[in-house]
Design goal:
2 copies of one chain form a homodimer. By secondary structure, chain A is an alpha/beta fold. The first copy, chain A, folds into 2 domains: 196 residues, Alpha-Beta Complex (Quinone Oxidoreductase, Chain A, domain 1), CATH 3.90.180.10; 134 residues, NAD(P)-binding Rossmann-like Domain (Rossmann fold, 3-Layer(aba) Sandwich). Helix content of chain A is 30%, strand content 27%. The first copy, chain A, has 12 helices and 19 strands. In chain A, the strands form 4 sheets. In chain A, strands 3, 5, 6, 9, 10, 18 and 19 form a 7-stranded mixed sheet that branches. In chain A, a hairpin with a 2-residue loop joins strand 1 and strand 2. In chain A, helix 5 packs across helix 11. The model of chain A has no long low-confidence stretch (mean pLDDT 97). Strand 16 of chain A pairs antiparallel with strand 16 of chain B.
Chain lengths: 338, 338
């Protein structure tokens, strides 16, 4: 079986890897229908996160179950399934509290850019769709594995409710799906922060009511201007840099919330500033498993179409071009078909 | 009129100050019935927060209205009133959202260790009790001006609800009243972190079910042990140091909340640790004005007795001894009577 392997900065190769098989009795092996490149894959791809050895890549996946261990009872061969990038048992106290991405037995699922994938803790991790989906639904179902679940969690963590004013920092796929999530949750006003025309267009399609092109302090000033000097009720931080985190915090009204899902790289928060800002902070790796049933339902019934974030589709063997296109911001997100 | 003035580290003097009078039409002048020394007064007293000029002290107060400006309509001379350490108009968007300590017109009320006090924005800041209270209620009513409202906010910010497991970091007056607040809000289990016997006793009286004497990593390990490895649902951070903040964060379960009210001194939060901790963070200067009606009611009807945190009562002219006793941890909190 061939799959993507990252060797070092900007060096992704599509090469022979060991075929996955059931190892633990709780495993499943699935045949990948679609996988994709995540914004967070770009951190190691760009060398910002060091790569010490050849590393198989990919943590977003959906596909057909091929084989299951003898302890697996909730999914069976032939079913179409979606799972989170963190395998979880869905029974430990953290899972029961809705934080499956902090499962006491969590395992990162990191080899999905390939034809087949071993998924540990299959009962707790995978959710089957009502039937094998038609082909046009697959991109949207794939987003539920991470990017849409992450945008959804950002909106939830930021307490987006009907009537609220929301600002979204970051116009990558997560930010854009944060806009869609805020809209689904009834936000009255959604300010997307973006300076790229194609992304602005998609943001508007997903429900953004305002676009702010300024960044940093100027971006904060614009948000304040748009909210009568008060700040937004909810701000979704979908980048993970010091600048984006500060922009998010300073755009939030006292008593408002920042939902942060961008994996932090070098972010430090000053306790005193946070104290006097009076904001709520919540975030982390999205517990997408919690949201899968609800989001599958929304996609299945064609209420939402998050698959629109894929503006480039390539055969899996062109995975290297998929990374390049995202790195150079020629593509928002690359879908890969084995 | 005489009042307390801080000249430099450990140099508090009781000396002649200008008598306060109504300056703005929205002011009130009150005759102080009782005031006290706050844990946060110890930061400048100890020289950790520099004092650049002789500084009048005191921000906790209750007393009888003596005079009001012509625009004041909600309180009148003769009434017994309590106010927050931040004057607020109680009408701006931040006040309406319940964050009066981020009022767009907020003013710090910092000269309360004296016989009389000017309170700006009296209509928005002061709340009158149903009648002039009997003397024995005054200590508890005084706590509502800051320390009890702050403990209450910590519990609210940490989402303390019926049935939750709560840990309280800090056994000063705020921490102890955090215990009382958590108990009032129906917490099932309240773990007080304290190594001082008299404070442990008061914590138990206020509702603590467990005492943990360990600190830092050992303290965290004890909390984990007491919560089956998961962590507390809600942790109240009532100190403001790097160690206490880390202790609070690391004692919280994924999806749980830290309510932090200790004024941060040199606290820095690592974004990555916060991200993977999955905790919620909320806090800041307590909007005690929001809680005054409810808390006055609880004290007035003798449902709570937060005044027990005062274990030293002195005449105001012995204010310097009041600071010393707290600095040396001989007293939890000093009440001062003009």
């Amino acid at each position: 079986m061939r799959g993507a392997v990252l060797y070092g900065p900007r060096d992704v190769r599509f090469e022979e890897r060991e075929a996955p098989k059931v190892i633990e009795s709780t495993d499943a092996v699935i045949r990948i229908s679609a996988t994709c490149v995540c914004g967070s894959d770009l951190w190691p791809y760009r060398g910002i996160q060091p790569v010490t050895q050849p590393t198989p890549m990919g943590h977003e996946y959906c596909g057909i179950v091929e084989d299951v261990g003898r302890a697996v009872t909730s999914v069976k061969p032939g079913q179409f399934v979606i799972g989170s990038f963190f395998a979880s048992d869905n029974t430990c106290p953290n899972c029961r509290a809705g934080y499956q991405s902090s499962c006491q037995r969590k395992e990162f699922v990191g080899t999905a850019q390939a034809g087949r994938l071993r998924v540990p803790l299959a009962d707790g991790t995978l959710v089957a769709t009502p039937a094998v989906p038609s082909d046009d639904l697959i991109p949207s179902l794939l987003t539920l594995s991470d990017v849409m679940g992450t945008g959804w969690f950002a909106a939830e963590a930021a307490n987006v409710k009907p009537g609220t004013t929301v600002a979204v920092v970051g116009d990558g796929a997560v930010g854009l799906l944060g806009v869609l999530s805020a809209s689904q949750r009834g936000a009255e006003r959604i300010i997307a922060m973006s300076r790229h025309e194609s992304r602005q267009r998609l943001a508007r399609e997903f429900g953004a009511t305002d676009i702010v092109t300024e960044r940093g302090d100027e971006g904060v000033a614009r948000i304040k201007e748009l909210t009568k000097g008060v700040g937004a009720d909810a701000v979704l931080e979908c980048v993970g840099t010091q600048e984006s985190m500060m922009q998010a915090m300073r755009s939030t009204r006292p008593g408002g919330s920042v939902g942060y899902v961008g994996v932090p790289h070098g972010v430090e928060l000053n306790g005193e500033e946070l104290f006097y800002a009076h904001v709520r902070l919540h975030g982390g790796p999205a517990p997408v498993r919690r949201f899968l049933p609800e989001l599958i339902d929304l996609v299945w019934n064609r209420k939402i179409n998050p698959g629109k974030v894929f503006d480039l589709t390539l055969p899996l063997d062109q995975v290297a071009e998929g990374y390049r296109a995202m790195d150079e911001r020629r593509a928002i997100k690359t879908l890969l078909r084995p």
